[in-house]
Amino acid sequence: MYIYLLFVHILAAVIAMAAVICYPLIMSSAKTTSQAKFALALLEKAAILPKLGGTLLLLTGLALGFLEVSLFKELWYVLSIAIFLVILVIFAGLIPAGIKQQRTLLQQTPGDDLPDAYRQSRRRSARLDLIANLAAFIVILLMVFKP
């Protein structure tokens, strides 16, 4: 059972992380209002991947811990879960709120030039993306090297 759960856990990580890594790449390519609108619509559709993958990742990680109870005494395991919860908050709550705000700003913008308010909101989202990606990198390091 453990090996099958581990397989699902790794698959969920790939699903969640692929979307997380792509967020800043997609958004940094938007240079006009119409491109930004398209990029935000794409992100809204892709938002299911980190939510689904992240939830499955958390559940399988906890299930692995319950199968191997000694994991709950390991610092790397507990830290991984704690850091991962931060990542989930960012990608399930903060990033979608930023996307809604940016979309509203773009709908109110005549022309194709990106407004300054949008750029500021996008910078906040980019910082959150960076924090989440660094946190994900740390979680991966913890899981691989188990210090």
UniProtKB/TrEMBL annotation:
Pfam families (UniProt xref): DUF2269
Residue spans crossing the bilayer: 6-26, 47-69, 75-99, 128-145
InterPro entries linked: DUF2269_transmembrane
Top-rank taxon, per record: Bacteria
Alphabetical UniProt keywords: Membrane, Transmembrane, Transmembrane helix
Name the UniProt record assigns to this protein: DUF2269 family protein
